[in-house]
Task: structure prediction
Amino acid sequence: MRNVLKRKNGEGYVDVAVTVMIVAFVLLFAVNMVSLVALNQNIKTVSDQLVEYASQKGTTAIGDYADELKEKIGVDFTYSFEESELIDESGKVQLGDKIVCRVSYNISIIGFGEAIHPISVNAASSGISRVYWK
Result:
């Protein structure tokens, strides 16, 4: 029995198997983080573009432009102008008033095993209306 316990045959196989598993987990985590950073950049760019367009038009009713952006980048984001200073319910913003756009996108990243982790990516931008409404 003592000889069986002293033998170390096969110990290297276990070390290699554990190392390969750890490297795979690290690579999976790195790929997920890189994709999240790229998505965050895209969402921030979309937020900036929506505010710029709304500032030029003087209104927050820009659904057609938002739909174009969704098709262009392939991300079905949601957006809101809740903090904007609106004149009325039509979405008009008076010259010099603030327009704030919040864009969010929910994504699920693959975890270890069958785990899926939901993450919300958010971005906000603000601008000033360039249109005078009578």
The chain has one domain: 2-128. The two ends are 96 Å apart (CA to CA). The chain has three helices and three strands. Residues 2-128 form one domain.
